[in-house]
Structures are given as structure tokens and as C-alpha cells.
Fold this sequence. Notes:
Chains A, B: Keywords: Calcium, Glycoprotein, Hydrolase, Metal-binding, Signal. Chains A, B: InterPro entries: Alkaline_phosphatase_core_sf, Sulfatase, Sulfatase_CS, Sulfatase_N. The structure is a homodimer. The first copy, chain A, is an alpha/beta fold. The first copy, chain A, folds into two domains: 29-367, Alkaline Phosphatase, subunit A (3-Layer(aba) Sandwich), CATH 3.40.720; 377-451, 2-Layer Sandwich (Arylsulfatase, C-terminal domain), CATH 3.30.1120. Helices cover 27% and strands 19% of the residues of chain A. Chain A is built from eleven helices and 14 strands. In chain A, the strands form two sheets. Chain A has a ten-stranded mixed beta sheet. In chain A, strands 11-12-13-14 form a four-stranded antiparallel beta sheet, with helices on one face. In chain A, strand 12 (385-391) and strand 13 form a beta hairpin. In chain A, helix 2 crosses helix 7 and helix 6 runs parallel beside helix 7 (245-267). The termini of chain A are far apart. The model of chain A is unreliable at 20-26 (pLDDT under 50). At the A-B interface, helix 2 and helix 7 of A face helix 2 and helix 7 of B.
Amino acid sequence: MNHFYKTAWLISLLILSSICIARAQSAKLPNFIIILADDLGYGDLSCYGHPTIRTPHLDRMAAEGTRFTQFYVAANVCTPSRAALLTGRLPIRNGIFGKRAVFFPNSANGLPHSEMTIAKALKSKGYRTGIVGKWHLGSKPEFLPLQYGFDSYFGLPYSNDMGKVGSFPTQTAPPNNNPLLPLYRDNTVIETEPDQRLLTKRYTDEVLNFISKNQGKPFFMYYASPFPHVPLYASDDFRGKSKRGLYGDVVEELDWSVGQILKKLKDLKLDKNTYVVFLSDNGPWLIKNRLEENGGSAGPLFEAKGSTYEGGMRVPAIIWAPGLVKANTVSSAVATSMDLFPTILNLAKVPLPNDQALDGQNIKDLLTGQKDKVTDLVYYYDSDRLYAIRKGPWKAHFTTHPSYSPEAPVPHDPAWLYNLEVDPGERYEVGRKHPEILEELKKAFEKHRAGVVPVAPLLDAIVEK
Amino acid sequence: MNHFYKTAWLISLLILSSICIARAQSAKLPNFIIILADDLGYGDLSCYGHPTIRTPHLDRMAAEGTRFTQFYVAANVCTPSRAALLTGRLPIRNGIFGKRAVFFPNSANGLPHSEMTIAKALKSKGYRTGIVGKWHLGSKPEFLPLQYGFDSYFGLPYSNDMGKVGSFPTQTAPPNNNPLLPLYRDNTVIETEPDQRLLTKRYTDEVLNFISKNQGKPFFMYYASPFPHVPLYASDDFRGKSKRGLYGDVVEELDWSVGQILKKLKDLKLDKNTYVVFLSDNGPWLIKNRLEENGGSAGPLFEAKGSTYEGGMRVPAIIWAPGLVKANTVSSAVATSMDLFPTILNLAKVPLPNDQALDGQNIKDLLTGQKDKVTDLVYYYDSDRLYAIRKGPWKAHFTTHPSYSPEAPVPHDPAWLYNLEVDPGERYEVGRKHPEILEELKKAFEKHRAGVVPVAPLLDAIVEK
């Protein structure tokens, strides 16, 4: 009998421990890494058809994951696009809009502390949270990343052309009153005007260290590269190496950086439980006769950064998580950067905040290939003026405006209608053929406008000296 | 001793037979399949960045082979481009040029019989040679494919809009004097005005049968799809299925067709010894306000079919031969369809003809990834007027002309200079910055013109009634 009990006890122990292990495994929360490029165009990667920029690591990321061809950001310039990504909300709701379009070094405001960010939400669930790179949601001490749910920060608080160098290092930099470009570690400036040629390498090291250090816990890393925003800088290993000139060198170094991160995840066996999202914050910056070859390419899309045409707001986007996200898939589902907030919260089992309206949707089913959703889209100019709307394949422009042009906006009545799935380049206006669709989009346009009450704009206030 | 001799004899026999097997294997010539799309644009496949056309088989072909991003054809319209592909020679040398731009049903001429074609060259080496699809190098009996080295033919002798239907089946077809569209088997018309919705399926069956029938011999198959040239037709299985409208349906059926061919090669274990080349004959056909969504996309490139800008003459091109051609490779080497002639002859151990000047080069080393060649290129308008030249990354336009425009050509002195590797969309004219390069290209332009003596044009003569 003694032997019987011993055996029975051992068996029970085995069953119990296996239950515990199963529970522990099912409770193992996934990690998240968002890699955000700056001003990278829809057409600037090999896997999106660029003829001379070679991006083998991002191409492999696409082959092992899902590459999106109708993925949008919420704004056509940096600051509001980033605010929308982190909050899942349109700029017009979180206040990150205004005449100045983005935050500058002398801006008085930052992202409202009442906003829930992906970092804050995940931190509440015990995630380790880090940001490396460009913040651009406020640069006064109270608006730095650690005040929004991030445990650690390493990077520049705004765009890389907002120091003494300016946008065009090969030309004479315009004299400006900007302070020296500050490089932060957490809440402290550790250097000014850092050598930008080393930024991609230094940022990559920071991301890899963060992953290594936090491999035992669930983590969230937001890696916002300063590039290929001008001024362009590549390290010695990449400068002069691409066929596409300095712009290509910079993109190829960013591709290398992504490759390092995916390799680290594989080496640490975190690849089966980590979602990596790669995307750009808006279209390429093309200022005719100023940027020339320093600006990227929107590929088949019309127009660029600053525009409400597709080239301004549709971006390259790849989501990778071997075993979790459908591999070797090109998805033409319509999705937006604001969808990341509810999707990540859902995957991390964090309830959505119930005190603020969300503009993103949970796209988990898109990642597993179970759905091919078409979301309605709104295209805001300067983040507060509704210019266009998309419903299904149809897009109606109620106002257009050449990007970075002093010309006045041009209202259209009837609106200009395009079928984006058939005509992604917005070449063939088809409103006369489809008056009933024009009518439907007009109603949707008015319904959206009536449904969103803009808060006060935060981008325009300047620090008093 | 008896035993000793028996053993020795057996050993010798073994050695001899293994030598014979090795010889037989090394002498096994590769098969070749050229799949030529009609008016498919640079940007029309998933793997070249199209947002809504899904081409999983061509994408996989690219992943298992080499995808070219700077691959050119010799002419910006059908007939001369096809003549150049099959002969490795510029239209201005083989006579396939003229005011009419292409052959029509009432054309009096065909490809000169003095021209060596890939088919004729391979046939001399014992290859079985077949063509399925669009010929377009002469439609009088003496100019049909069997008169140029092909053993078998199944297809339409010219474009699919040269029968009674015309280019725009959804509109009223313009009345025309064309004879009924003839479908040939070898030298015989077996049907007229065949149901074009079935053409891709029927052609695919013909290609698969040809492969099965000739699996024991070396073979060459030239499969020239009539699509996505207008009028567009897809079978019931594909019509209405793509997001890109009928154009997308047609391209997706062509993609299926390619998938069937690759599958057949794998099933018959011919995939390790068969080179498959997929390309288009010229850029997409975009006639503003006429073709609209029935025309394709040149992606990031400027202009289209009929133009000497990149959109007219740079095409999607994938070369596949597992184990022979470098896999998972995106090559930005500059190559042309005229390179196929000398490359295929070399791989098939057929000497090059020594009585005619060739414009193509052997690109075998590009296929194995050992070289990344940059060829000089010439861009002819209507195949006889030299408009532009490319040398390294630089392209100089000495004349430009909007495609399909009644406007007069515009000469440029100094020529318009673009760096295609940095600026594939030909947006930023940089001649003032690089006068020495302009000078170099001007010399190359004049040297080429002086070096080629045009033969008489063959496209313009009409059959007397």
C-alpha cells in the first residue's frame, strides 16, 4: 500500500505540474517591437519594387511574415502620425495638430498626459517598455517619453534636422536659432549634436541590449529611426555602398539594423513570441528642386509627405511573428497605424481604455489571414482639415492641395472620385460614372465631420523666453 | 585465376559505365521556356510592388530565382520587341521597324528568313521547339513560326485586338476591315474569332502538353501570352476575382498559368535542368481617357508603352532554374531581352552566328550572381529614331515625345540628363551639374548612330488586294 500511495502521489504531482506548466505557457505574453522609419516612401524597399535599393532583411521579414499594400498612417507628417500610432487616435482627438504641423524645439506643449499610450497600457500589465530614437511628442522635461509609460529612453527628442545642421548638410545650412541637438538617455541630455553617422549603429546596439536585458519578461520596444529623414547620414560601412546614392545607403543601413534585431530574436529564441512591426510615419519628402535625390519614392502612388493623396499617407508595413502571423503573405487589407494600439492591447490581454474614443480597430484576424478587412479612412490635411475619405475601394477628394506648396487649397464640388484598388496612382477621375458612390461618400464625409469634435490644437504654442 | 579475371572485368565494366553515365549527364542540354506577357507594366506584379494584383506564383518564381529590376526590351511596342528578343538584334538591324510601328493583318512582310532565331539555332542542335500564343512577326503563310525554326505552333498570329472585336470590348467596337481573328495550329487556321476568355487555359494546356511530350529531349518553348493586351478576357475561374478589376483578373490568370508550368516541371523532375524566363514585351498601354483602368502600371517609372522613358522599355523579368540560377535574388544588373539569344545559345552549346551583328550579350554570369554588369543601352522611338542612351547609371534624352501623342517630338540640346539608379522616375534633370557626363553620353550617342547602318524598314508594306 505504501508503494501504491507513493506512486499515486507522484502521478498527481506530475499531472499538477504539467497543468501549471501549460498555464504558465498560455500566460506567456507576447513581446512587441515597433520599428518606425522616418519619411520612408511606399516604394523604397526591394519588396515594394524599388529598382536599386537592396533591403534583403526587410524582404526576408516580409517573406516570413505579412506585407501590407494598403496600410495607412493617420497624418501626412511626423508629429501627428506618431501621436496617432501610440494612442490609436486621430490627431484631431488627441490635440496633436495645428498650423505648425509638427513640434519644434521651441514648442511649449507635448502629448497630453491624459492620453493612454501603448507603452503605458503595456506597463500596467508588467511589460518592460523602452523607446530608442525619435520621440517628437514634446521636448520639455514633462513631455519626454518616461512621462508616458516608457521605462527607458535613448534618442533625439525631435527630427534630426532640428539642430544646427538643418535639412541639407551638403548645402549651406540655414542659420537657425535651434538649440544644439540633444541626445537623451532617459530624462538626461548626455550629448549634443551627436555624430549622426553613428546613430543607426548606436540605436541598434541600444535595441539589442534592451532585448537581451529583458528576455525573461514581456517587453515592448518602440524603435523610431531618425532616417531616411534629411539630413541623411550613414556609417562608414554603408556610405557610398548602394546604387541609390546616400538615400539608398541610409535605407540599406536601416535594413541591416532590422536584420540585427530579427537575428537577436532568433538567437534568444524569442522569435516565436515576438511581434515585430515595421512601418513608416508618412510618405517620402519630395520638395521639388530642393530635396531632389535626398527624398524617397512613393512607387506607384501619387504625391508625397504633406499630401492627402495616397503617396502622403500610405506606407510600407510588414508584420512578422513566425507561427503567429501568416508567412509569405501579401495582404491588401486596408489597415492603419492606429490599429496597432487596440491590436497590441488585445494580444497582451490589456483591456481598452473606456474613457476615450479610439480610431483604430483590432486587426488580429488580418495577421492570421482569416480576414481581409476594408476600413473606412479619413485623410486630414495639417491633421485638422478633412480633405478626403475612403470607403471600400473608393476615395473622394473634397479638397486637394499640392504638398509643400504656397498655393491655396482647391475645393472640389462634386468631389473627385477614384477607385484606389483599380487605380492606386489616382490617375482616372470617375465621379461622373458613379454619382451614387459620390453621394455615399459625401454622406460618410459629413457623418465623420459631425461625429468628431476637435479638441484645442496643441502644436502652435511657443515657449516664452 | 578465372575468378580474378571475372572480378577485374566486372570492375572495369563498372568504371566504364560510370564514366558513360557521367558523360551522358554532362551532355544533357538544358531546356528553355520563355514566357512573354503582352503590355504588362513594370509595376503590375506583387513582387514588383503592385498594391492589389496578387501574383503568388510569379512571386514564388522570383523567390526561387532572380528578379531583375533593370531589365529592358529593345523596342517600346510589340512587333519590334519580339523580333529583337528572338534574334538578339536591334530592330534597325533586322528591319522590323517602320511608320506603322507593328505588323497588322494586311502587312505584306514578315521577319526576314535570313535572320537566325533562338528556335532555329536550338533546332540545329536537336532541340524540340514550340511556340504557343502571339507571333506578330508576319501573318502571310511564308512568315508563320514554322518557317523560323519552330516545330509546332498554336496561337494567334498577331495582337488580340486585330480581329473584329477591337481593343475595347466594353465600348462599341470600331468597325474595321480586319479579317476574322485566326487561331492557328502549325500552318493551318483551325478556328476564327476564338472565345478569348478561354485562351489562357487553352494556351496553358498546349504548353503543358508540349513539356510532357518532349520531356526526354532538350526543348525550347516560347509562350507568348496575348494578355494583358486589350481587349481583356479572363476565364470564369478568374473573372471578377481580383481587386484590380478585369485587368487584375487577367494578370492573375496569367500568374496561375505560370504556376501550372513550374508545377509541371517539378512533377516531371525537369526543374533542375530547365531555364524559365518570364518578361513583358514593353511597358503598359496607357492612353489617357481611352484605356483608363484597362491599362497597367509602370510602378515608379515614368511613362508607358510607346515611350522612350523608362516606363516604356523597362519590364518585369524573372529568371528561374533551381540550382542553376541564383535563388532569392533581386538583381539590379542592367540586361536586355536581346541578351537571351546569346545566353541561351551558349548554355545550349550552339555557336553564335558569325554573319550577323548581335546587340545582346551573354548574361550567364548575371544568373549565377557572379557579375553585376551594366550594359550601355539605346532607346529608339518607332524603332528607328534614336531618342536616348544609357551609360552606367546615366541616361540622356536627346529627343522626347509623349507616348501616343499627336504632338511633335521635342529635341533637347543640351540633352536632358538623369541618374536612373538614384532617380528611376526620371524626375530630376541634372545636366547642369554634370556637363562632362553629358559630353560623354553625346559621344556614345553619336558613336552608336555612326556604327549602325539601318536596313530597309519592313513594317510599312501592305498586301495588294
